[in-house]
Amino acid sequence: MLLTTPERYDLIFSEPSNPYRAGISSLFTREFYEAATSRLAPGGYFMQWLQAYEVDAAAIRSAYATLAGVFASVQTWQTQSGDLVLVATAQPPIIDGDAVRARLQQEPYKSAFGSVWRVSDLEGVLGHFLGGDAMARALARESGGIVNSDDQNWLEFALARSVGAGVLVDSRDLLALSRGLRADRPAVRGEVDWGSVEEQRRVARALFGPGPEPGAPRDVDARRRAEAMLRFAAGDPAGALAAWRTQPRPPRTMLEMEMAAEGAAVTGADDALALIQEVRAFQPTQADVYLANFHLVRGDTQGAAAALESAFRRYRTDPWPRPEVMGRALTLAAEVARRDAQAGPVLLEALRTPFSVDLLQHDRLKSITSLAFAIDFAGMCKEALRAFEPETPWQQNFLERRVACYQEVKDPLLPVAEAELEQFLGWAPTPLVADMPPRSDGSNELVAPAGGDQGRGVGARSPGMAMPVPDGGAAPASAATAGAPDVPAPLDPAPDAAP
Fold first, then answer.
1. What is the pLDDT of residues 149-201, one digit of tens each?
2. Whole-structure pTM value
């Protein structure tokens, strides 16, 4: 398109798929970037998405070398944990701070930045800046002269080699490099609270990835706030609020408000309702989850169920609550139903409709199954399990309950369920001591059962192997001898896996 139009653009954003996919790497070449420069209006911006996951350092350096070889200035921003955006321009850009502050109060910018980054001010936006042009050129110099071109597209094959390798490039390393080069602050016209930028930058790294930065702020109160937000990121909202309350400043940013509201809710604090209302102004779905937590801590299961029902209904059209909060909401639903039998059917009905863009789909279906099993096993288990067929979760407790359900209702899929459970158990690792009965002579040793290791698979013991047991101890009961509870326990969380 860039080669076929005379139009010029203020902004060209290139966000293709991964470069190792057929044809995509041509959008990361010198020729493509030259075409982009020819179509940019004076003062225009070219923005290149670049993955920071499943990619090695050499590939990243070659991408910087290629882009920096065409554009005079390249800045680096981080959007999410594994995503970088390289901002390339003909001249070093200067951010108009007052203009950004004004835009953040207007739609759609207010909702967009609040929903995705949880920021509402200039400092929060700047917290996602990783490095300026000096950092980009330092990386380019280390590329070994490798530039991606249409004739020699090295990046395509470099990325293909690292697929599945996990996170090989840590944005904290990029930030450390830019700080060493004094390139960690963009040029901004107007007043900036750089202390707030650093605090929000730390929070963004901790909550959205890749993890907390090393070191701690020098200011005592800033250090306490940093500790609070790190605890919040680690899933300890109560500890986070306790740490926050050792310093004087009230919560100010969106993420600080979320931390305070959730911490107050899970501890049943007297100011919880006021803090939850502050979150409701920008994230009502999460506010409902916090409210449910508060009601449950205070012993009001009906209030907790009503708040969760509202949260699940909102989540059908609102995709922006943090996924970890909604995951905890599903766990909370099981606990509310366990304490209050009347709440179970209400929550089950609220979960029947998929969430927005099928978010947490597998977890939602598993929650439905757990609730159905607890409410009316014989009457509801079949319908709940049908949502998973034919690729059911490859977990022992799930497969066992599937067999129990199909036996109860005489379902024609019972032979398949039994065969898959048998297959799972046949592949399961052999326990070290759980199936070793104690000697009949009363000695504190465990021996292999008759038949030795025949048919036991890899790692089985020989018949003569013995294992001492502490005096007065007993061998742990196996799942087969321990007995099954009347109401199945909640399903274990697990990745979407199938045989």
1. 989 888 888 777 777 776 667 888 999 999 999 999 999 999 999 999 999 99
2. 0.80
482, amino acid identity: A
Categorize the per-residue pLDDT at 497 as very low, low, confident or very high, splitting at 50, 70 and 90: very low
pLDDT greater at residue 197 or residue 479: 197
SS3 per-residue string spanning the chain: CCCCCCCCEEEEEECCCCCCCCCHHHHHCHHHHHHHHHHEEEEEEEEEEEECCCCCHHHHHHHHHHHHCCCCEEEEEEEECCEEEEEEECCCCCEEHHHHHHHCCCCCHHHHHHHHCCCCCHHHHHCCEEECHHHHHHHHHCCCCCCCCCCCCHHHHHHHHCCCCCCCCCHHHHHHHHHHCCCCCCCEECCCCHHHHHHHHHHHHHHHCCCCCCCCCCCHHHHHHHHHHHHHHCCCHHHHHHHHCCCCCCCCCHHHHHHHHHHHHHHCCCCHHHHHHHHHCCCHHHHHHHHHHHHHHCCCHHHHHHHHHHHHHHCCCCCCCCHHHHHHHHHHHHHHHHHCCCHHHHHHHHHCCCCHHHCCHHHHHHHHHHHHHHHHHHHHHHHHHHCCCCCCCCCHHHHHHHHHHHHHHCCCCHHHHHHHHHHHHHHCCCCCCCCCCECCCCCCEEECCCCCCCCCCCCCCCCCCEEECCCCCCCCCCHHHHCCCCCCCCCCCCCCCCC
pLDDT in tens, 173-186: 999 999 999 999 99
Residue 262 CA to residue 332 CA, distance in Å, equals 13
